[in-house]
Amino acid sequence: MTGNLKNLCLLGSSGSIGRQTVDIIKRHGGYNITSLAVNSNIDILEGQIEEFKPKKVCVYDKEKAGILASHLRSCSTEVLSGMEGLLEIAGDPDNDLTVTAIVGMIGIRPTLAAIEAGCDVALANKETLVTAGHIIMKAVKENKIKLLPIDSEHSAIFQCLQGKYGPDGDYASWSGSPVVEKILLTCSGGPFRGLSYDELKTKTRDDALKHPNWNMGNKITIDSATLVNKALEVMEAKWLFSCDVDKIQVVIQPKSIIHSAVQFVDGVIMAQMGVPDMRLPIQYALYYPERLPLDCGRLDLFDLHKIEFDKPDYDTFKGLKLGIEAAKTGGSICTVFNAANEYAVGKFLERKIGFTEIYDIIEKCMLNHKNIAEPTLEEILEAESEAVETAAK
Ligand code: MG
Predict the structure, then answer these.
(1) I want to staple 61 with a disulfide (CB 3.0 to 4.6 A). Which of 40, 101, 237, 280 is the partner?
(2) How confident is the model at residue 173 (pLDDT cuts 50, 70, 90)?
(3) 72 C-alpha vs ligand 1 centroid, how far in Å?
């Protein structure tokens, strides 16, 4: 801590979550932004450096890091690059909170470095728990840090669990808790809700990029259309809340008004409702356990009239079924599911494959994989390359 301010390391500061994090801190204060990292967007980073004067920044792209360093000659901010740079800023023991808003499996090692440095982590990087949940959660427990969810559904579940922790008092774990019966993970159903598999086959990149409720990056918008995102979120919830996959029920709620819910043993369901706005989960993680004002829209229940629910169509949206199977099995198959999807979505965005071929690729890669129950970081990376190789064939 510096004075009354907590030291914040923000990984992925130029992306949508990163920029919203910065805006929230400008509004509510409480943090000294001491380090920032981007993949390659040095224009946004330069503005942030000017504004917050961080000690260190990391640009993952080495060439871009060089360009930035030449711009910053007269400034005291140190410019680092690559994975070494990410690990150096994330592993600084002076950090109080690290926000991990970088996309992809590249987030695993910096997240682990932050946890091992005894720093709380606000997690907006799904792949970290999806692929290395067993390693991350072990480190969270050993280092007694808080792992705060930024994913909106997981934030909702976390909010519903306040005051109802497991018997061990572990804030994020209700494993064996006598009070929680199941998690209701809500899902908008995406733009293709209600379509048949044959209709799904004809959908193009432009159709898939029109999400009804949320405005997000391209990769996650496609994942929301295939419902693969929901499968990844099942894996995320399994680790975050130490719960069996069969206690997580996916519920379609088309307007994204209920962000998720928890059902307790007395039959009570507690849900978190509100307008869909990512600033809420980000702000809740940054200032947990405080609840601060937010100038987002307000839900008018009279305007809303009703809330609809539906069961997911697992036969049409095969990616959800495959992902839940992987989540139940656990181990390196989850990395394969994630990596095959990432590859396939890339090809779909390049208009090289059709929409349902995303599912075909995931399925082939999963069938081809020999599962490792508790993979090491190295084995996780191997499973990733294997999946990409199979997918490319
Ligand atoms: Mg989500």
Answers:
(1) 40
(2) very low
(3) 37
